[in-house]
Amino acid sequence: MNGVEPTPTIAQVGREIAAGTLSPVSLVERCLARIEAHDTRVNAFHDVFAEAALAEARKAEMEIRAGRLIGPLHGVPIGIKAVIDIAGRKTTANSRLLPDYVPDRDATVVRLLREAGAIVLGHTDTFEFAFGGPTFDALYPPARNPWGLARSTGGSSSGSAAAVAAGFCLGAIGSDAGGSIRSPASHCGIAGLKPTLGRVSAQGDIPLTFSFDTVGPMAWTAEDCALMLQAIAGHDPADAMSSEEPVDDYLDGIGDGLAGIRVGLIRHFYAGDFDAHPEIVAAVDEAAATFRGLGAEVVEVRVSDVMDYHATGRMILPAEALAIHEEMIVERLDEYGEVLRGRVALGATIRAVDYIQAQRRRTELTREMEGVLGEYDLLLTAGLLVPQAALAAKQVFPYFTFPMIDVPFNLTGHPAISVCAGYFEDGMPIGAQIAGRYFDEAAVLRAAHAYEGATPWRGRRPDLG
């Protein structure tokens, strides 16, 4: 514990609301008070729907008192990344190109959260179009890390991670095409799940790519991510990438532990291919030891170099991003922020033959990862490679040359979660990453939940004063 009162979890407040010992109105008021007190420094939200959220909370409270409790999300305030449509609200993607875009219907994930009784608290910060950031020339300023306001949150679901870490909301929705849920979760010390590609509908998500975009939950714990995933998973005919694979009960067996589970430790990603900060190496190695202590068999495994995965993904992503943005880039180039402008323009340097060869390599790397997951139930590796940088505008070109340890599971489409694995000496969080087989989010969440229960990290919260 660091002396700061822990923000309650979704699971905790769900039980209290069901028991009648916690009012959804008081919970929303508490979140709004924290936002008013601290978000001028954190910048987690683009837009807070205070009046509407309080009205939804009053409605939820009346329904629950009348015996019409929908489920564990009923009355729980949730943030939504600002690339995801909310009907009647500006969905800007933090870009000067979309300052007044107002969709006329909710994205599927927002609709499903509402149907589960969740209260939509507002739109959270994002890198511009989920790609260009952090930067100071977008529509809104970048979110700051609640653990150190001069430090980066990671991205691009930066505001969602910061909002949960700061206690502004209990959960949030992010999107992930290249680590954009898991990187900020690792940077901000929370849990963030990238589901299997196609597990959660991306309808209503302003796209970055055609073949990577994945929507998922961010919260303090794996259990909370499971509660959110239960509400939003499932087939959506409005999303061409959506899977018809049946949805598991993600809470069933989440507490069963890890006895007999086989875990492949991809240590060379963070200690060999790239020499991560020594405190990260020690923390993830210790996480592997914790897994062993919980009864799992942990064996060090090898796949291709992390940079091979990274380079393949970073060849495909800018090409697809340019295909989406090409018309606006030609007509309105100067309205893009500098970082996004440069990154999308990189797509123009990628030839058709390069893109095709990258897709071929993607197939080979996916088969490789599938082979390892045929032998092991789960994979464990780091969630970040370097400490949180000072918050400053990113440059375009290191985007290609610095490996992102999240990208392998975007490339292959496997589910992966980032969980807090400790803290640097200066108090900033360290993340570890757990990945699993296609559509086996239940096993990923079970492992993350067991690890969280065996470690003290969840008792710490940032002190915003």
How would the blueprint of this fold be written?
Blueprint (H helix, E strand, L loop, with lengths): L9 H10 L4 H19 L2 E4 L1 H16 L11 E5 L26 H8 L3 E6 L33 H8 L5 E6 L5 H7 L2 E4 L19 E6 L2 H11 L29 E4 L12 H16 L3 E4 L5 H27 L5 H9 L5 H24 L2 E5 L15 H4 L5 H6 L3 E8 L5 E8 L4 H14 L11
Parallel strand pairs: 2-3, 2-4, 7-8, 7-9
Antiparallel strand pairs: 1-3, 4-6, 5-6, 5-10, 9-11, 10-11
What would your notes on this structure say?
With 465 residues, the protein is α/β, with parallel strands linked by helices. It has a single domain (10-459), classed as Amidase signature (AS) enzymes. It contains 14 helices and eleven strands. α9 (306-332) runs antiparallel to α11 (352-375).
Q: Which sheet architecture does the biggest sheet show?
A: 11 strands, mixed
Counted by DSSP, the helix tally is 14
CATH topology: Amidase signature (AS) enzymes
Strand fraction equals: 5-15%
Q: Judging by the overall fold, what is the CATH architecture?
A: Alpha-Beta Complex
Short note summarizing the structure:
With 465 residues, the chain is α/β, with parallel strands linked by helices. It has helices spanning 10-19, 24-42, 50-65, 108-115, 158-165, 182-188, 222-232, 278-293, 306-332, 338-346, 352-375, 398-401, 407-412, 441-454, and strands at residues 45-48, 77-81, 119-124, 171-176, 191-194, 214-219, 262-265, 297-300, 378-382, 416-423, 429-436.
